[in-house]
Each structure stands twice: as C-alpha cells, then as structure tokens.
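Our consortium's second objective concerns turning raw sequence data into structural hypotheses that experimental partners can test. To show how far this objective has progressed, the report includes one record in full. It was chosen at random from the queue rather than selected for favorable results. The single chain below, 438 residues long, was entered without modification.
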Amino acid sequence: MAFFRRLVTRQSERLLLLTLLLSLVMTSQTVGAVVPPAGADPRLSQAVNWATQQMAVPRLWLEDGVTLCDKFVENAFGVTAQYPTAYDMYLALGKAGDPVRQTLPGLQQAPVGAIVFFDRNTGNWNDGHVGIFVGNDQFVSVVTGGRIKQHSVQSWNDHVSHFLGWAYPRADWPGYGKSTSIAHAALPALSAQALDAATRAFQSQWQVGEGVARNLWGPSLVALEQESYSDAPGGYRLVQYYDKGRMELGDAKGGTVTNGLLATELISGELQVGNAAFQSRGSAAIPIAGDPDTPGPTYAALNDRAAKLLAPAPSKIGTTISTSLSAVGDISEAPATGATDVRNAAKADTTLVAYDDTTKHNLPAAFAAYRTKVGLGVIGYAKSEPFVTTVKVAGVQRQVVVQIFERRVLTYNAANGDAFKVEMGNIGQHYRHWRYAQ
C-alpha cells in the first residue's frame, strides 16, 4: 500500500511539473517570447531593406523633440507602440538572452537584421538607443534631428553610449508590411520664396566675406538644409555648410544670418539644438588642423589631455607663445629654439598683442589682426591659448601656430605667402562629419 501511495504521488508530481512547464510556454508565447529563428528568417532581411531605404526618405522620426529610435525598429518588423523606450525593449528582448550576445565580440554571431541595443545616458534622454544591425559592425538607426543614419557599433559604443547586446525580434512580430506603421513628421515644406530668400542671404554673407579675405568660407559642402532647432519658428532652421564654417537662418522671412559656435560644440561634445538645449554626442575625434590623415591633435584632445589650454589665462601681452602641443594632446612649455622655429621665423606675428577679457585668453598679432579684418561675429572670442604644433599640410609636416576660437580655428603657417599665412581650419567639414557621420 505504501508503495502504491508513493507511485501515485510521483505520478502526480510529474503531472504537476508538466502542467507548470506547459503553462510557462503558453505564457511566454502570450507576452511575445524571443525565439531564435530556425534557419533564415525573412523578417530580418525585410527589416534591413526597409531600414536602409529610410535613409533617403525626407521624414523625421521625432515626437515632441525626442527621437523615435524604438518606434523605428518596431516599424521595421511590422509593429508599433510595443515598448515605451528603447531601454524597455532591451529589458524585454535582450537582457535575459545569451550572455555572449551582450558583448561586442558576440556581435560576430549576430545575423544581419538583428536588433542592437545601447545604454541609457543624458544624450538619449536616459531612454537608451536601438537600431537594426546591417553587418560589418554597422547599424542603422534614428539619430539627432530625427534622421536615419548608418553608424559603426564600435564607434557608437566608444563615443556615444555603451553597447548592451543584440537580440532577435519577438516571435510574434509579423515583419515589415504586415501591419500599419506610425506616422512620421515630414520636414516642413519650404516655399520657393523662403528658399530664395535664404539662398540670397547666405550668398550675400559669403560674397562679403570672400571679398574681405579670400577663402574665408570656401566652397559649400551640400545644398541648403534644414536642421532641428527648438527655438526657431516651427522647430527648424535653414543652414548652409561650407569648408570653413556654417551659416544659419532661423527665420527665412526676415531673420538674421548667424554663424554657429562650431569649435565650442566639437570640443565639448555638446550638440546645440536650441538656445539652451543640448544633446551629448562626445567630443570630435577629428584633427583640428592639417590634412585629414594628420594624427592630431584632435578636438577631443582639447577636452581631455590638453584641457589646460582652455582654462582662463592671465594677460601675457608682449611675450611670445611658449606652449607646444603634441599629436596626442600632451602639453609642453618651452621657448623657441633655432631659426626655423615658427616663433623665431615670424617673431612679430607670433608675439602676443591682445587679450580677450571675456574669455581670458591671449592672441598673437597675426590672429588679432585677422579677426579685426574679418569680424568678431565670424571668428568669435578666443577659446584657447595659442600653441605650436606640427601637422601635415599638403603631405608635408609643418610647424604651425594654432588657436581655437568660438566659431573658427585659425592657423599660422610661416611657409605660406603673406596672403595665406593665416588660414582657417576646415571646421565646417569637421562639424558636419561629427554631427552626421561620426
């Protein structure tokens, strides 16, 4: 009899265990379990095709100024309004998955079309970030301003927000085209009159500037664009990028053309999207002067190793520049040595003759004269002390004097002709690359 009772008890336990397991399976299916697809999952390729096509579509994935990266990914798989934020999506789909998938090396196992997650920080409103993996360390997602861009996972991890892992889409997501997507804000329509007014305003400032100093702006990089700016009418302003800077027009109906604080943003890593609104992007790892393949120094170095150059300094009028900066951003203090040193070769031009009391920085004669010539509104106040560094210019290593201003970077190359000894760094190129590609 005791044996029979034990047998019944064991059978009951097994039945109960089976019931619990079945219940768990049904429950997981109800809430949308993440099941790795067996073989090729057509939803992945559909998502990639759709996501990459969106880069050419003039839509803005924005809602009250916040980028809709989570809704973009949901739409790629045929659903919407599944999770309130990208980080909530990660908690549901990625956090409980295979630990290997939560590392950058584990990305090598990810199929094209997988969902990639990034951590919360102030730059993404503490909502996290999410995108569609397209292979070769690249993913497509919504970036600042609501546009769709392709980026490196490694670079995003290093400079924007930490990589959390990758995951498959939920098993109950039907795939793109199987349900209705959310509506997206289109770029504001511009009348022909507004475009003409903006174009004429930009051309007028360009012509005046180039008449004062050749190559003050350089050629335009792209056609006139709209960028998100919360304090502009309608939340957008018109901008024009040139090699040497950017022009902005908040109101095409009668606004004033301004020039952005590009150097300030590139160094701080804070992208200005309103009069008092900023988004953290990370300092630009781009050489401040010289050829594009110059090792450095970079804007990022000036926010790190070389940050001392940005600190307020006492007036040193009448002295010469004593600070040198290495390619990696190391600062050294030493007087000029040898006749070929730019400070000896051009002693009058490199002697400190002016002091910006607003920002507490000294200016050498060449830069002070150049700013007076082209205008404070174009250059801005000095943001750093002047320094000597070596960069590659047209493939040749040159010792130059460099100084960062709020809007521009000025360089002094004694090897150039008199008209071009003082030049602008290509900060327009640098800024646009940082904003849209880096």
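The partners drew two points from this record. The chain has 13 helices and 23 strands. The longest strand covers residues 396-404. Both points have been shared with the crystallography group to help prioritize constructs.
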